[in-house]
Design goal:
The protein is of the alpha/beta class. The chain has one domain: NAD(P)-binding Rossmann-like Domain (Rossmann fold, 3-Layer(aba) Sandwich), CATH 3.40.50. Helix content is 29%, strand content 32%. Strands 1, 2, 3, 4, 5, 6, 7, 8, 9, 10, 11, 12, 13 and 14 form a 14-stranded mixed sheet that branches. Helix 1 runs parallel beside helix 5. The termini are close together. Its cofactor is FAD. Belongs to the DAMOX/DASOX family. It is found in: Peroxisome matrix. This is FAD dependent oxidoreductase domain-containing protein.
Length: 345
Amino acid sequence: MGDGLTPTIMTANVVVIGAGVVGLSTAINIQRLVPSCSVTIVAEDVVDGTTSVGAGAIFRPTEEYLPGVDIQRARQWIRDGWEHFSSLALSEHSGPAGIAITPSFMLSRTEIKDPLYKDVVFTFHELSRDEMKKMGFDKHFSYGYLVTTIVITTKLYLVWLLKRFLQNGGKVEKRRVSNMNEFQGRYRIVVNCSAIGSRQLFGDKLIHPNRGQLLRVKAPWIKYCIYTDADAYIIPNQGLVAVGGSRDENNYDISIDDKESKAILERCCKICPSLKRAEVDHVWAGLRPVRSPLRIEKEIIEVENDQLTVVHNYGHCSDGIALSWGTAVEAAGMVRDCLKCSSKL
C-alpha cells in the first residue's frame, strides 16, 4: 500500500488494440498516468492504413456526433483535448506534430447555438449579414461564424504520436488480432481502440461504419478553413488542402467513387471559387466508426475458463481527432484505477 493510504501500482503489462489516433493517444496517456506499466500496441495497420491518417481534422467537436453522451462528460473531453492541442500549437512541436492555428469559417443553413467548442477555441465571432455578403457566403448559408481554432495534419500527427510512444518505451506488434484468448496470461489489461473492429472482436452490434470520401488538392493560396452543414469543407493541411466530403451510413466500400469526387468538388467550388484552379493530388476514402453512445467503459470478459479486464475506447464518428486526447485521458484513468484495485488484492 506504499504510504499506507494510497495503493501503489505494481508493474503491469497492458496491451492496446488499434494504432489510429485514439489507440496511440490512449497508449501515451497510460504511459503518462501509470509510468510503471509496460504498454504494447497491437494493430494490423500502424499510421498508414488507419482511418485517422486520411481525416481533414479540424477541432470543432459538436453534440451532433455525440448522441447519448452526458454533456458534462463531453465538455471534459473537449477541455482536455483543447489543452493538449493548443499547447502543442503554441510550442516548438507544432510543425513536426502537424498542428496549426487556423482561422475557420463555420457556415450553416440554420443557427448554431453555443456549440461545445465555443468556450475553448481561441476566438469565436458571429458574422454579420454584411460580412457574410462580402465573403459571398450569403448565397448558400444563413449563418456564419469566424472561429480561430486548430487544424491537424493527421499523417504528421500520427507519426509524432508513434515516435513519442516508442521513446517512452512502448512496443508495437504489427499484426491482426483474431480473438481475446491470445492475450490471456500475457497482459493484465486489454484496452480496446479497434473502432469498427469491435463488431467482430467483441460482438458489438452498435458500432457501424459511415463512409467518407475527400480529395487532397494543391491550393497553397488557401490559408483558412471553410466548414459547412452541407457536406462541404475545405481544410488546409501542411502541403495540401483537404476538400470534402461525403457521408454514407453502413457502407464498407472504401474504393474511390469518381462521381462522388466530382460532386464534392462542385459543392466546394460554389463556396470557394478559387478551388477551380486547384490540381487534385489524390483521393481518399475511409470509414468513420459510429456508435451511440461513444464507448468508454470497463468490461470483464470470459476467456478460456479465465477472466480478462478490458477498457473500451471507441466510436468517435467524425470527431475522432478532436476527441482523441480527451477520451484517451479518461480511458487511461480507468486503466490506472483498475490496476490500483488489483494492487489492493
